[in-house]
Every structure is written in C-alpha cells, then in structure tokens.
From TrEMBL:
Primary location class: membrane
Record-annotated G-protein coupled receptors family 3 profile domain positions: 585-731
Pfam families, per the entry: 7tm_3, ANF_receptor, NCD3G
Localisation: Cell membrane
GO CC list: plasma membrane
Gene Ontology MF terms in the entry: G protein-coupled receptor activity
Highest taxon, organism lineage: Eukaryota
Identification of the protein by name: G-protein coupled receptors family 3 profile domain-containing protein
UniProt xrefs under Gene3D superfamilies: 3.40.50.2300, GPCR, family 3, nine cysteines domain (2.10.50.30)
Record carries keyword Glycoprotein: yes
Transmembrane segments: 585-608, 623-643, 655-679, 699-718
Amino acid sequence: MGLIFILGLLGFMFEKVSVRVHSAELSCDMQGKFVTEALFKEGDVVIGGLFPVHIESPEPDHAFTKTQQDYLCQGVDLRSYRWLKTLLFTVNEINQNPVLLPNVTLGYLVADTCLAESSTLRAAMSLVTGHEKTVGTDCIGAPLVPVIIGDARSSASIVLADTLGVFDIPLVSYFASCACLSDHRRFHSFLRTVPSDAYQAKAIARLLVLLDWTWVGVVAGDDEYGKSGSQLLLKELESTGVCVDYVEVIPKSHSPSRIKRIVERIQSSSAHVVVTIAIGPDLSVVFNEIVIQNVTNKQWIATEAWSTSIQYTNPASLPLLNGTIGFALRRADIPGLGAFLTQLSPVKQPNEPFVKEVWEEIFGCSLAQDWQPSSNRPKCTGFESMEKHHNIYSDVSQLRVTYNVYKAVYAVANALHNMLDCQPNNKNEPCPDVTYIDPKQLLSNLNAVNFRTPVGDAVYFDENGEPSASYDIMNWYLQESGQVNFVQIGQFDSAKGPGQELNINLEKVVPISVCSASCLPGTRKAVQKGKPVCCFDCLPCAAGEISNTTDSTECTRCPEKFWSNIKRTKCIPKVVEFLSMQDTMGIILTVLSVTGATLTTTVLATFFHHRETPLVKANNSELSFLLLGSLTLCFLCALVFIGRPAPWNCMLRHTLFGVSFVICISCVLSKTVVVLVAFRSTLPGSNLIQYFGPIQQRLGILLCTLVQVVICLLWLLLGPPLPSEITGGDF
C-alpha cells in the first residue's frame, strides 16, 4: 500500500512541478520549476536542504482529478527558519575554510516543506531533478543536488528515504528521530545527526524509575514520531514496574472535541506525570486546552521536540508547565552564528524568500505595500532593530537542533572532501569529477566520515547511519518576569555503562505519582482485579507471618520457635507460658489448694485429738485418718501443677494425684460398704459383717491402691508425661 501511495503521489506531483526559486544568479529557464519557495546559491557542488519554514499546508486533492494549482503555505516557524539560515551560514563558513574542500565551492538549494509529507516529497523531487520529468527518465545525468539535508519530521523522512533510496541519493536528517528509521536495510541511504528515539525512550524510562514515578500518562502525536516513540516507551516500561494509566493520541485534524476529551482524561487521571511524545504544533492545541480547563498539579515530561522551546506555548500556559522536565539534544555554541542571524533585513534582502514573512512575524507588523492605518498590525519600517528584540529566531542560547544542521552540513562537506581528495590507482580509475558527484559514492563516503567540528565534537555514523546518543536533561523555571529559564539538571549518555547512563540532580522536591501508596512493613501487596500491577491493596500478614520490607509481595512464615509480633514486622521467640504463682489463675488455685488442705488438716488434727472418744472410735478412726490424709494430699497435688513444667514434676503431678485420689476413694468405698453391710446384718441369720472387718478393709484399700500404682508404673515406663510446646496465636 505504501508503494502504491508513493507511485500515485509521484504521478500527481509531476503533473506540475513548480518551485519559485529566488536568486539573482538563477537562469530564467529554471524559474517556476518548484512547488514551494526555495533559496538557491550556485556552487561547484549544490547541497539540497528541506526545512518546514511554514507549518500549515493546504489539503491536496487526493482524488487526483485535476492539476495541482499553486498555493502558499501559512504560519511561519521562526525556529525552523533559524535552521535554514544555519545551513546557509555553515556553507559560507566551509567555503571560507582553506583546508576543507579547497578549490571547491559549495552551493545550496533549500526548499520549504510546509510540514506536510506531500509537499516535502514534491520539494525533494524538485531538488534532485531540476526539471518537470519524473525521476528515472534520464538516469545517465547527475541530479541537480547529490545529497539532501532533511527532513525535520520522521514521517516525511520515511517517505523521502523510501523514494530517494531507490536512486541511492543520501538523505541526512537533523531532527527525524523515529527509531523505525534505524532499519538500514530498508533505509540504506538515510543518515541522521539526531539520536534515535530508542535511546530517548530508554532515558525517559530510567528517569521515571529513578524518581519513583510508577503511575504515568502518555500523550502522543498521530504520526510516526508519536506512534513509534510511545510504543518504544511502553516496551521499555514493561520490566521497570512503571504503569501507564492512559495513552492518548493527538489527531492531526486538531479536532476541538477530541482535544477537549484528551485534556479531560489528563485532568481526571490520578497519574500526576504526563509524558508527551509529539511535535510542538500538535502539543500547542493541548496546551491551549489545559489553560481553559485549568489543569494543575501535573508534572510534564518533554521530549527533544519541545523541551527547550516555548514557541508552542502561550503566556497563560507557562505557569501550568512550570517545572517541566525535558530531554534536549546536546547544546553547542556556534561562533559567528548569532551575528549572521541578526543580519536579516527586508531592505538589504528584498528578493530573498521568507524574509518578509519572518520580519513581520518577529516584529508583529506589516510590510505590505497597500498597508492601511485600519490594519490589525502596525506598518513596518524595515529598519527595526533585531539585536534589541528578543525572539526565538535570533536566540542562540539553546542551539540544539540548529547544531545538528551544522553537523549535517559538515558531514557532507567532509564526505565530499574525502571523496574528491584521491589519487588515481593502478587500474587507471579516474578520481571523481566535481561537476558530477555520484550519489552512491557520496553515500559510501558519508557512512565512513569521522571528523571533529569546529566546535570540537567528534562526528561519525554507526552501521545504521546514526550518531551516539547524548541528551541534556532540562528543567523549566518560570521567573517572576514571566520568562522561562531552562536549567540543565542532568545528562543521559548512552556511551556509559548500564546503570550509569542517567545522571540527574534535582534541588526541589518532586511530586508523587503512584496508583497506590506503598505497602508498609507488616503488609503485602494484592493486585486489584482488572487493573495494572501498580494498583494494589495492602493486606496485613496473617498470624505467624511477617514482611519487613516496603511493598512486599508476600509474607514470610516465622521459624518453628518464633512468632510474629503485633505489627507483623519481625519474628520474636515464642513466649513459653505456664501456670505460675504470678498468674491470677495460679493465685486462685494456690489459695483454694492451701485452704482445702488447711481445713482438712484441721479436721484431721481434731479427730486425732479426740481419737479416744467413742464417737471417733465408732467412726473407724483408722479409715478416717487415712481418708483425711489422702484428701489433704489431693488438695496439695494442685500445687505441683503450678510452675514451669519439667520431666520430674510432670510425672509426679499425675501419679501423686492418682494414687492419693484412689486412696481417698478407696476409703470412702470401704466406709460405704461397711455401713451397707451393717444395715443388712440386722436381719436374723446374717453373718456378712464378719467378712468386712478392719483387716478386710485394709486389704481392700491396699488392693485398689496397688492397682493404681501398677497402672501408674506402666504408664511412666511406657509413655511417661513430658513437657510439650503447644503453638498458639499472639499472646
């Protein structure tokens, strides 16, 4: 489908390939051959350039039912125009360098892409053909430009790389960072001086983990940059413990209802961190809506697309974006560029394209010949001071993408230098002719360049045509004057080892962005049904289990002789509890035991004192003394059950009580039998009483006691009672 689209677009495009080229040196037969406005300078080798000077392109006729008419793009982008002027400045700087490309003059042919794929492709085809016929009609002749610096957008770069790659025409982008362009088998003629978004996704993931932001939202653009970037970020976050609450896509139509719904989702979400992966024009409509809905308490994460640019914001949105953390391309100072940019003048450069519109945009005035006092804008004089007027075009304090343009031009110049600086070999193969630069040979030299820019940075491309990745981490500080100060708080360098790529130093307290608060020690995490793993409940550990770390996923059971404390945070030795004199139960039992023994002993003493009385003798004093003595022992046996269990007292308490109790019961039984026999002996002829005399009574008690003693001995020998531990709950 992509090939069909490109072929159809090529057919449509060459119905009328018309670009208005502005140069006093351009021949008349070249006039009117380009779609959009272009800037031309003649040279031995002409470098092509594509820049989105305008950001609003009219919708093309996708039905292909009529010839495309000339049109004018709208909305000047001062930042992009600075990139364009940087190419011009760099070409002039190289031409003045006696070492680099001596005796060779570089020229340029730069076109406006209007921030649209269709106009970008038309402009690129016009640069490499120079005539109305389609590419491939005359494959023998060299193209008008053998290399193109551009494009800024990933989506457009994909279209260009697919198309120009067929003819091995090198394309060196300064801002197309989509990781999809790393496929060197498909995009073999594509190189870039901007790092791949794969590194930026990794850097953002590292930042979120470092600052413990585990609950975030993602807002992406509806293009290759946004789609690929968001997918890479989600993949990087899979194993980090960071969860994404929502992924919202900004439509290219900027539908008010869709934008409103996106901002409402941001507002209602409990995620306080919003990661944006979109170009500035797409985000500008979102920033306007957050002002309307007053979206506060959000931490914005910016990509290199807008991390150091406020041109897509408005004064009302700046307080809401204060504190934004962004990843910016490496900054550099380019000597002489600032003075070159301020030389812009509609009076001195009346025929140069874009100057009039840029001047009007900078000073908010009009250069129209038919200006009327009733116009919305005041009239420009053309002599306004560029140095005294602060604007993004002449601001050279944040040269990042600008520096990429600078490096791209130098990369092409060094490749040409290496290509032209040759000696004929033994095969008598001629050196390249400056009048005919073979794009394929230039591409080979571009892939092999390794040099240092005048700034001092090394420039080279890896096997995928990409540079090493390095980002400055910037923080937005809104000053009282309303100006935004971009402060570098860290850096990400992919060349460093794992775990050392990210270095950040935040002086202020960062917000908390989590779905669920951390589970304290003594609890465990339980994932909420149907929600990401970052959303969980904190459940207390069960008795006998502990968790001594924050956000524990499970509780650990205590060892055998340990138990969990009240807070379930540590295992403590189990408390050995037994009946003691200090316990209430022990005190009560002791009092009852001593009282019972005392009363029984008192009765025994009374009986002994009156042992010679008829009453005591008639009551069988011998059995009475034995009964009272055994009963006293029964009461005192309770005291053996009080105290720490030991093998000896475990055996004693049971056997002593058993024997004492049997003696007591035997005495009661004997007395009962004697009384029963005595009543029955009153009958005439009854001699039963003679069988229950004192000797028989003693033998009966002794027999019962011996049975109990045997039972106790067998018990002690076969299964003696020993102290044992019974596991219980919290005491």
